[in-house]
Amino acid sequence: MGTFAWAIHQANITQGLDVISVADGLQINVDGANQTSSPFNLATISDSVTILGNNARLVGNPEFVTSGGIDVTKNNPQKFINGFDILATPSFSLLKIGTFNANNSGINVSISNLNTNGLNRIAQVNQGASLRYSGSAFEQSVNFTGGSTGCCFSGYAGSTISLDNVLIRDAHTFNSPIGLAFDALISAEDATLNISNSRIERSAGGGAISLVGGVANVVSSVLFGSGGVSAVGSASAGTLKFVNSLAYLTGPQENGGLDDDVRSNRFIAGSGGVIEVIASTILSDNATILGNLDRGYNNGVPLTLAGGSIQLSSSAVMATQVAGLDDQIAYAVTTDGGNYSADALSWVRPTGTQGASSLQTLFNQPGLLTGQPGIPVAVASVDPLVEFLLPYPEGAYPAVPGVLLGVVPDAGPGGVNELLNPMDGNPITTDVFGNPRTTNGLRNVGAVQAQVPGPLPLLGLASAYGWCHRLRRRTRALSTPRRGKIED
To answer: With the C-alpha atoms ordered 134, 242, 299, 179, is the resulting torsion angle positive or negative?
Structure first.
């Protein structure tokens, strides 16, 4: 009596909304927890409940023997590789809300300030149920379950998942599947997904967010080193709005990402899928996300059409260029077709294979911005050309002076181009890093507003020199660098 599982059970058998409050700052080790109605989940919720976590943390300790056969890793920040690693003790998932393939409408769960470390999935939200989770951190989740389930959150038909001010860090899916139905960190099928003021960092799997039918809104959030997003139709169209948000697609090495799979480091719209990129920034650091795959897969990093559509509105998109990828198509269309579109306030950086005029044709926008400088990059080698993004978060800032600054007119309060939150219609007043969203009524192209000094003063001359020096060393396997400099 008095345990977390006991409290959930009492909420389930007591009709109506119940409130559970966890002791302030409590750390709960869930290894060996008594299983209730599921062999995989710490708790199954069948009635509405509000859980006040009070900054408590649930800790699991998965164990597996690595492919080398000698190391048992506990609370491991690496993904479990099916067919190679030997699972010793899986961790529990946290919550299953409602019953799968049943009508769970009326089950509404709200959780705040309840953190996790080392658990399997955080929540499976079944048909018709709703979950709002806020003010919490989920770290080192390792999904041993497999199948089409989000590593952290998964929602099914008619369900709603709302995540506000949450952090997902060092999370790993069971495996990285190929295709549109990604086993992503967060997945939703014919459901509603709302993510705001949140960060997904240094995680790996089948991308950060996967939508298969339904609606997803990603607002004022950051995807860093965790792959991109996918949208495809199902019983309904799949429409994903990426608003005032940053996708910084980068792999391991010094930029600090984790997902180096080129298949998932992209924004991909499949048949029936629509991705609207609004006042956002998508950056791809190709040299760090090559993984162990053939480089030909890099076509479509960072944008891929596979039968759907991708629409840009006052947004910035770019891919760095790397020797050996001279024929890369950064903004690709597969044989399934699809449509790109953009307004005249969006910027797409040309590459060696896709010049300014071809991009204006591809995005059906003769006024598409393609000039430079836009987003600064570090040039580790001029001939052959090897570029890297600057370290996060500095690498997301626009060049000063540059073509992204103050482009969107009348963007202040009540203006024609005022930026509004698609979830509630309220004005968005800060950029993705908390800076004021407009300057003298003007908004920058992309997700970052602050007119900070350029990268050399920002990093400091000595720091910038050291950064490029490290870039030269780590690109020797790619090319023979001649000198390092920072430019767009």
So the answer is: positive
